[in-house]
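Entry 14. Ran structure prediction on the chain below.
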Amino acid sequence: MLKRLMAGLAAVVLSLAAQTAAPSLDKAGLEAYIRHLLMWTPNVEVTIGDPKPAPMAGFYRIDVHGKLGNNSRDESFYVSADSKTIIRGDILDVTKNPFQADIDLLKTDDQPFLGTPGAPVTIVEFADFQCPYCRQEASVIRKDLMDAFPGQIQLFFMDFPLAPMHPFARGAAVLGRCIYTQNNASFWGYHDWMFAHQPEITPDNLKDKVLDWAKSDPNLDTAKLAACAVAPEPRTEVDRSEAIGDALKISATPTFFINGRRMVGTIALDDLKMVVAHEIAWAKAHAKPADCCSVQLALPGMAPAGGKAQTQ
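Output, structure tokens:
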């Protein structure tokens, strides 16, 4: 009796394993099909990941990475076990925020911020101080959009320098972290000054120009700033911001997340206002008694463990 029971249990285990084991997908065939679908020419380097379990039965997720020079693009597909059917798009759970996967990756603790704590709209911007498109969008986000919705937006800045395409971007990010460490408001002064003077900056004159600018800010200690510029700590913080961007598969700047909704590149003010107004209306319509907002990222101004909250 025991032997029959054990044999039956083993058969069930083997059956379940067969059902959950990843199939041997036709990667060569899939690559050819995806190249045609996305118009990826032969000089695009394509990497197809191993199949992973998908939310729906009978399908597996494969992640595809395309790279051409300094440009890259990531796509996810859901492929049937026989490799004959492909679903392109996101699999969404209607009980959750449609942008929840990205929201879970956005870590805004101890990042430069503007706006109102607990505002219904949180914007997280990934930018590069040498990026011309970031320069073009800087005043639109920093001033025009914030002014259009007083008290309704919290803005966070995240470093994502695109080196080696932009040779002084990483150094500018490090100096920005040093300035933020001394004073959050001073960081935004640096932000505005850096983008205004972007054409004049080079890798060779960056540090001297920033130190000269810092003399005009009474909240900054230039000696501390000079020491910080060669210290490891700000570089670690820039690395952390870049790692978050990499996890989000960011490949261009500026990239914005408005309550988790991803928007890339230069965006007209009217389009931004439309999205923010939509998010405010959505938050009001779906407010819960104990939770005023449908989306919650890290609370602005709240100190990370062992740290101090910054205000301005």
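Strands lie at 45-48, 52-53, 59-68, 71-80, 86-88, 113-115, 121-127, 153-159, 255-258, 261-264. Will compare against last week's run tomorrow.
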